Amino acid sequence: MSGPADQGARPLLSVRDLRIGFGDKTVVKGVSFDIRPGEKLALVGESGSGKTITAMSLLRLVPQAWATGRAVLDVAPEGPRELLTLPERTLRGIRGQDVAVIFQEPMTALNPLFTIGDQIAEVVELHQALSKAQAWRRAVELLDSTGIPEPERRARSFPHQLSGGQRQRAMIAMALASEPKLLLADEPTTALDVTLRQQILDLLADLQRRHGMAVLMITHDLNLVRRFADRVAVMEHGVLVEQGAVADVFAQPKHAYTRKLLDSKPVRDVIEPAPDAAPLIEARGLRVSYPVPRPGIQGWFKPGEFVAVKGADWRLNAGQTLGVIGESGSGKSTLALAALGLQPATGVLQVQGQAWQFKPQADKPLRRIVQVVFQDPFSSLSPRLTVGELVEEGLGIHHPTLTETQRRERVLATLADVGLTEAAFPRLLERYPHEFSGGQRQRLALARALIVEPSVLVLDEPTSALDVTIQKQVLALLQRLQRERGLSYLLITHDVDVVAAMAHHVIVMKDGDIVEAGPAAQLLASPTHPYTRTLLASASAPAA
After folding, report:
1. Whole-model pTM?
2. Do 253 and 323 have their domain in common?
3. DSSP letter (8 states) at residue 229
4. Which of 102, 251, 262, 287 is the most exposed place for a label (fewest CB within 10 A)?
């Protein structure tokens, strides 16, 4: 990566005593920092620390928020301008032109009704006064500069037709359409696999060098900060508690909160399963395919086929965690769907010796044995149901003879087991999911799965959406539950640190194939397949 910007240069953006609030509540409390031309500053903190509101309020993109203090943008030829007091008309000219934004989730930031090329060309037309044909050619050039293969074809694609990494590259192309002097990047790699994260970081660093722009990165990923940023500023509860050069802050953090963040790497605390443990799920020659359209007249009579999992052999024993790693499209999530009986497959797949029948009554006993915890609890928990209704729902299906008092007692006991009690959360059973933090919602999702006393939990990226400190807490909870209940976990993840902390055995998937498998400690320390080595190298890649 490029070195730090000239510290003697005049700041491109100077923020002083920035305070932001809603009504009578202040959420950002007197933040001050500078960004110089060509500098990469990371704004770090947990959810609720105020980092995103701080960045977005610079362009007044937070509805109904008030802001005081100063935020001076110094861009030639206009010179210094106070962002917080500029007329809205003038500020619209700055957005996208001098200061651009890459949002966290491109699937929601991009318009699903327009092609990628049309959306980029619209920005080009607006800021560079080009014709439609010229703007389209420029949009294709911008996509090409981000490394998207076949940029002309991809420009004619809609957002849902691109992978996560390609959508993020399209967002970057759109942000760079007007060659801004400052780029605000809000968690630009959170939802991406480790190799894609590294590719996006390398791309941002290369584009930053070529265009000489400054970058304000909002993130909770300390590995990303270490690889990418020149300086780091740490926020806690709306207060900037520490800032300085990345190397200095990471080597000698002065504030207790910074030390807490740096000490939040997952810790391995698991017991080895018995060597003669019986297999709970066993697969031999597992093959999963999807129908796809075929071009031409042949497609009228017989659809094509996409094979997502190709003859996989694996087993999950009692008390064991099986980690499944691989990039997006590798087949790991399809493998999990097959294990859950949600996706038909060929070959052999048995849960405690029984195959899925795909008949509700026949599969009902297996549904109790195998439960799932999804990546995003906010979307997997119904917003219309209270906590009591959400957690109790499985009892009505699998234990219909329990009385109302027995169900309530079991719900409270299960919630307490995952760290949620009525003492800490008054009226716990009457609350709704939106009243809880991300980590607390993940605990609710765990309680909902555990209430029926399963033997296997399928964990689909259970911590990827969580801050590092919350991630550590949730993993510790999962480890404790496994020790106390003898649970088995099928862990789907792209986070190598999570695999190292949780897994006993690991399988590595690429393009539907299991390319390598073995004990976690051995595979992570000495991978034999080139793809596995690439994955692990991407997860720990130092700054270039």
Report:
1. 0.77
2. no
3. -
4. 251
C-beta separation of 74 from 80 below 8 A: yes
Phi then psi dihedrals of residue 26, to 5 deg: -95, 125
If DSSP codes are grouped into helix, strand and coil, which group holds residue 214? strand
What is the mean predicted confidence (pLDDT) over 530-534?
92
Residue among 24, 94, 29, 113 at smallest CA distance from 68: 29
pLDDT band at 167 (very low <50, low <70, confident <90, very high): confident
- Rounded CA-CA distance 342/372 in Å is 11
Query: Per-residue confidence at 2, pLDDT binned at 50, 70, 90?
Result: very low
- 133 vs 144: CA distance, rounded Å: 17
Q: Which of 27-41, 318-332, 352-366, 530-544 has the lowest mean pLDDT?
A: 530-544
Domain that holds residue 373: 319-344+354-539
Give a yes or no: residue 48 inside a domain.
yes
Q: Which residues in 213-303 belong to E strands, given as ranges?
A: 214-219, 231-236, 239-245, 279-292
Give CA–CA dist 232/244, Å, rounded: 6
Question: Residue 91 domain-assigned?
Answer: yes
Distances (CA, A) of 436 to 103, 169, 387, 485: 23, 33, 10, 26
**Domain CATH for 56:** 3.40.50.300
Q: Quote the tokens at residue 326.
A: 């691989």
- Report angle CA 151, 157, 158 to the nearest 5 degrees: 140
Confidence of residue 79 (pLDDT cuts 50, 70, 90): confident
| DSSP for 11-76, written as a single string | PSEEEEEEEEEETTEEEEEEEEEEE-TT-EEEEE--TTSSHHHHHHHTTT-STT-EEEEEEEEEET
* Burial class (CB within 10 angstroms; exposed 0-12, middle 13-18, buried 19+) of 38: buried
Are 403 and 488 found together in one domain? yes
Q: Are residues 233 and 325 in the same domain?
A: no
Note whether 337 and 422 are same-domain residues: yes
Q: Is the peptide bond before 77 cis (omega within 30 degrees of 0)?
A: yes
Q: Is residue 164 part of a domain?
A: no
Q: Are residues 259 and 323 in the same domain?
A: no
CA distances from 319 to 236, 249, 322, 386 (A): 38, 40, 10, 32
Do 424 and 494 lie in one domain? The reply is yes
Q: How many domains does the chain have?
A: 2
Place of tokens 């009579």: 301
Separation between Cα atoms, residue 3 and residue 221, nearest integer Å: 20
pLDDT in tens, 213-248: 899 999 887 878 888 899 999 999 999 999 999 999
The pLDDT mean for the chain works out to 88
Residues 365 and 245 in one domain: no
Q: Judge whether 391 lies within some domain.
A: yes
- To the nearest 10 degrees (0 to 180), the angle between helices 404-417 and 438-450 is 130
| Residue spans of alpha helices (H) in 146-245 | 151-155, 164-175, 194-211, 222-228
Specify burial of residue 528 (Cβ count, 10 A radius: 0-12, 13-18, 19+): exposed
Q: Is 226 helix (H, G, I), strand (E, B) or coil?
A: helix
